[in-house]
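Lab meeting, item 3. Inverse folding demo.
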């Protein structure tokens, strides 16, 4: 159909996605369906680079898929699938590992950060080769574009290098993907520490809005978000990090511009802003959670949707893997 192809994945490592995941990444997945041919996967192979409880992992994989469907990932338009159901990911990953220098892999800063936290001896080899599996995820689908935030730039660069290296050595096999700089993404900050990003691993419970938590709880978190001692509702991330974060969230959820909001809150205080945003958030969360629940109420149907997505993904993945194997002499 002449559209550029996009691949993106998300790990099933929490019971719920949070507002940062949604406004910073997942919302764009939904929009990209209008302009691109889209492949989206729940990357459970990536999740096991750190220890996972099997029951919890399976539950979180389904919950992740249910949330993606509920926010508007449309299985008619996108191939929505679970990574482990497409064995070509692991197969291509091995081939690419054999194209990657040990030192080259060792320069990945995310591994250095994550393994330092766990202790280098305890970190798995899978955590080390994680970016190569990510390269396989992308190259299998001949993706032209990959939506990336700042934290993923180095990994995409490795993917591009591996694609070019393989193509040079064995003949053109892979599309070299470009970063897709997504417009309208908001970086969302911790409600209690608005200088740090909202994060499932680093934020305290009150700093984080989970999509599947009790909306009353979310409202309370917004109303008790940390702001400064001033009064003026103004977007100024340097001087007013907390207020600016609330304005970003408000703007993203309502499609009102930050400038509109600043005007609307002229002469009003932070309390008014928080009260209104809490309402906006609750009104958005309630129907979203109902949709998620309806997917989770019929797990058999959910599994069928995911199996169909995997089938569709495999048609492309298997063709790429076959071409790769032939090049190598398999
Ligand atoms: P976390 O940081 O909570 O562990 P992940 O690293 O799993 O979240 O991120 C999944 C996706 O969500 C990535 O595309 C990431 O860039 C995006 N993301 C995570 N936190 C935020 C945030 N606070 N603001 C914007 N985007 C975010
Ligand atoms: Na993270």
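The presenter then showed the designed sequence:
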């Amino acid at each position: 159909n002449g559209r550029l192809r996009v691949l993106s994945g998300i790990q099933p490592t929490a019971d719920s996605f949070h507002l940062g995941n949604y406004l910073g990444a997942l919302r764009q997945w939904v929009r990209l369906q209008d302009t691109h041919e889209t492949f989206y996967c729940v990357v459970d192979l990536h999740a096991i680079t750190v220890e996972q409880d099997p029951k919890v992992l399976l539950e979180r994989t389904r919950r992740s898929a249910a949330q993606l469907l509920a926010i508007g990932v449309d299985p008619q338009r996108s191939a929505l699938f679970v990574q482990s159901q497409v064995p070509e990911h692991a197969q291509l990953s091995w081939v690419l590992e054999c194209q990657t220098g040990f030192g080259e892999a060792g320069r990945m800063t995310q591994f250095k950060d994550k393994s330092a936290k766990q202790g280098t001896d305890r970190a798995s080899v899978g955590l080390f080769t994680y970016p190569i599996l990510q390269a396989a995820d992308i190259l299998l689908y001949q993706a032209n574009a990959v939506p990336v935030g700042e934290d993923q730039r180095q990994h995409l660069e490795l993917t591009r290098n591996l694609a070019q290296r393989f193509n040079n050595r064995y003949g053109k096999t892979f599309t070299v993907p470009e970063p897709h700089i997504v417009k309208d993404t908001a970086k969302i900050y911790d409600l209690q520490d608005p200088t740090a990003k909202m994060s499932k691993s680093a934020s305290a419970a009150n700093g984080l809005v989970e999509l599947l938590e009790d909306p009353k709880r979310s409202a309370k978190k917004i109303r008790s978000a940390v702001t400064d001692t001033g009064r003026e509702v103004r977007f100024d991330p340097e001087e007013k990090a907390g207020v600016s974060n609330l304005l970003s969230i408000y703007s993203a959820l309502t499609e009102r511009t930050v400038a509109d909001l600043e005007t609307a809150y002229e002469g009003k205080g932070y309390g008014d802003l928080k009260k209104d945003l809490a309402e906006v958030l609750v009104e958005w969360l309630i129907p979203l959670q109902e949709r998620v629940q309806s997917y989770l109420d019929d797990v058999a149907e959910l599994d069928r949707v995911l199996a169909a997505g995997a089938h569709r993904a495999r048609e492309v993945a298997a063709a790429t893997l076959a071409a790769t194997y032939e090049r190598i002499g398999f």
